[in-house]
Design goal:
With 363 residues, this protein is an alpha/beta fold. It has 17 helices and 12 strands. α2 links the parallel β1 and β2. The structure holds uridine-diphosphate-N-acetylglucosamine. The site of uridine-diphosphate-N-acetylglucosamine has 19 residues, from α1, α5 and α11.
Amino acid sequence: MIGNRPQFVKAAAVSTKLRERATEVLVHTGQHYDRELSEVFFEELGVPPPDHELMAGSGSHAEMTGAIMTALEPLVAEVRPDALLVYGDTNSTLAGALVAAKAEVPLAHVEAGMRSFNRAMPEEINRVVADALSVLSLCPTEVAVRNLESEGLGETAVLVGDVMADVALIFGPIAEQRSDALERLGLEPRGYFVATAHRAGNVDDPATLARLLDVLAGAAERAPVIFAVHPRTRARLEGSGLLEGLEGRGIRVVDPLGYLDITKLVRSSRAVLTDSGGLQKEAFLASVPCVTMREETEWVETVDTGWNSLVGLDAGAARAALDELPAPGERTSPAAELYGGGEAGARVAAAIADFLDSPPSRP
Ligand code: UD1
């Protein structure tokens, strides 16, 4: 089951492999529905078309989770799957987990065990609930396995690697060839930063959003910032009058980009500034330094190896980090070994196939 941007990327690594081992019925919850947040990922990454679209749309957490659950419950009753597979940490993940658990359908969770230990993040709540209900926890990292062990959930854990890394490793070189994003935006390799921001905690409150823009403006003193703006963030920028004046501060606002374009931009950038989990890793995998506009990260390996710096919304710390991080091209990150070497999708499919052959007793 998938529903929003990062999940389309994750499914690109899993669906094809899974279909070699089992029958997959793909459900799109409709949490993300704009072409640039949804369709373009299916087209570019070859994700199979969904068998069912729940059209849940946007709303408050309760509205969205409730709408997905209401549409999914009868579908699960009809299809009676042997297992329900959810990805990541979004409201789609939470809704899928709750429906599966109550229908007594075994739940498998890709990207299980990730923790920020910050329960102010809606994603953290979604992770904790999904992991508590999973019978098969497909973990991207050893740290994730240890997190589950410390919560008494170690028996469900299987280390598979990061499925997003599979996609980055395959599509990185393809993006290099196919995307003309640099030419379209008139950019020189290593002559700009790429920025994204969409976390509720960073963008919903205008004063906090203004601080985030100060971080970007600080970076823009060194090189232009290409700010690929998520619809949530655009709505907040427009609503608070903060959109005007960004160009004058060296921040160039562009619409959300497809996978190949953002990948190309990241790989050719001087550094990435983001609050996205996916981009932190994609930068790391491309040996491009990252400055993360959060106080903590689930992808601690990127920080431990010196490729990612957590600066929160401190503009001074961000500028200092940009000066200290390794220069792109200077050395190569230990990316592939840390995140599964491009084999995570195949391992997910194998773990699910094994599970279907001999399901363990329910926890
Ligand atoms: C969601 C996930 C987050 C994930 C992110 C990836 C939750 C709680 N959060 O955040 O974990 O990293 O997706 O992008 O599930 N909107 C559109 N068009 C769309 C989709 C959304 O305009 O296609 C607008 C909605 O009106 C809404 C806002 O964007 O106001 C936020 O969408 P939402 O799905 O709530 O959360 P994201 O910020 O995308």
